[in-house]
Each structure stands twice: as C-alpha cells, then as structure tokens.
Amino acid sequence: MCSLLALEADGGKPDFHRWRIAVETMNQLSTVMAMSSEKLGSVLNEEERFTIPPAPKTPSTPGRERLRSQVRKLSSLSQGIRCLHAKMQILREDSNRTLEESEDVSELGSSLMAQYESIGVDLQSLTQAWEAGKASLAINIDKHERRISHASNGLRSPAPSLGGLTVVEEDGSPADALRALNGECPSNRSSMTVSVSDEEIYEAIAIPKQRSTFSREERIAKIQEERGRQASLRERRDATTNMLKELESVINTRPQRPKTGRITSV
Predict the structure, then answer these.
(1) Which phi and psi (to 5°) does residue 152 adopt?
(2) In 3-state terms, what secondary structure has residue 160?
(3) Model-level pTM greater than 0.85?
(4) Pseudo-torsion of CA 72, 73, 79, 81, nearest 10°?
(5) How far is it, in rounded angstroms, from Cα 87 to Cα 111?
C-alpha cells in the first residue's frame, strides 16, 4: 500500500507502463487474497460445526440409538468447549485493554479473580459432562459385551477329540464314554450336569410407541378446551380469594365496641 501511494502520476507516457504493472500486481494480490479468504472461511466453518454422521438407511436398533445419543453428547461437549474458548478470548482482550488504557490497576486483580472463578465453574460443568458421557459409554459397551458372551455360551457344541467329535461332555468320566460307545444311555449325573449347565437366553423386543390418532384440528381443539378449563378454574380461585380479602378488610375496618364490665350477682 505504501509503494502504491508512492507512485508518481504526472500524466506522461511513462505512467502507462508503471501503472499497468501496478494494476497487474493488484489483480494478482486480489486473487491470492480471495483464495486465502475462502480457505480461512472453510476452516472456521469446520471448527464451528460439529458434523454428525447422517442416519443410515438400515432400520434403527437400540444399539444404534444408544451410540447416536453418545455422538450427540460429544457434540454438546464440543460446543461447550468452543463457548469456553470464546469466553476466555473475550476476557483476555478486556483484561489487556484495561491494563494498557487504565491508569489505576488496583481493581484489576479482583476482576481477574472473578474471571478465574467463572472459568472454573465452566470447566467443572464440562468435566462433569465428560465424566457422565464416558460412564454412559462404558456401561453400554459392558452391556453389549455381556450380551455377546451370554449368546456365545448358549451355543453349545460337542467337545473335539483326537478321533473327531465326541458325544461326551468335557467333564464326563471314562465310564460315560464307554456307555456311549456301547450304545447305552448316559448316567443320571451327566444328564443332570447338562441340564443344569444349559442356559436359556430370552430376548425382549420393545413394542414401538403408538402415535396419536388425533388430527391436527382435534389436537388444537383439545388444547383450547384444556386452556379454557384452566382459565375458568383460575377465575374461580381468584374470585374466592378476592371475596376472602373483602371480608377480611370489612372485619378490620369495623369499629370495635368498648368493653363493658359485667356485674354478676351471687
């Protein structure tokens, strides 16, 4: 800018060549600045916006919904961190301005202490949100792993051996193996062990919540009816309160009769 302002312009022929070069240089600088501005704008938009992955086309399951809620918690945590960063930036600029422009800096220490307290409260809330999200995610992962382990334990298979697959349990005795080879029934102990060790796994399926069958006009009419009923109840309560206040004011403004001594004869 200083070089541009220092250029001479007297209307002669050398001005054409000189200003042509200046115009070309300014066009190049304008192009570079426009590209840099676009890159800076895209970077700022990416920092301000936490993109949530779009909902898949596959049917929604409880596991996917739980993971989606965890992503939403992470998004809110990121938003809180950005708000805290912006707040600290504003506080730092205000403090620097006060320190440079103000002559009396005796109250700056108390102001900084208040700022530290405010930032500490925000950090505590962010820490609590982080701990809650992490604990919830750990619980969901534990439940998922436990469900998978229970399902794998329920699928029992014959025990392998050198000769192939056997029909005897791993904890069976040689007598049980001999009975199985002879075609006899297994002992009661092994059957009891199998029946006790087998586990039954039940899986519950949640019934989807039924949507309201009322139309929009019916819902509006119902809401207006409810509001009218609440308004009538409020008016009745106000009328009762006003009547009680009037009775109280009448009793308080009524002149008191003088107390007369009562004479009793025996």
Answers:
(1) -70, -35
(2) strand
(3) no
(4) -150
(5) 15
Is 263 exposed, middle or buried, given 0-12, 13-18 or 19+ CB atoms closer than 10 A? Answer: exposed
Q: In this structure, what are the phi and psi dihedrals at residue 106, rounded to the nearest 5 degrees?
A: -70, -30
- pLDDT at position 44, please? 77
Tokens of 99: 């320190």
Residues 62 and 125 sit within 8 Å (Cβ to Cβ): no
pLDDT at 161: 47
CA contacts within 13 A on the Cβ side of 116? 6
How does the average pLDDT of the chain come out, rounded?
Answer: 74
Q: Among 172, 174, 177, which residue's Cα sits nearest to residue 189?
A: 172
pLDDT for residue 47: 64
Question: Within a 13 Å sphere around the CA of 100, how many CA atoms are in the beta-carbon half?
Answer: 6
By three-state DSSP, how is residue 161 classified?
Answer: strand
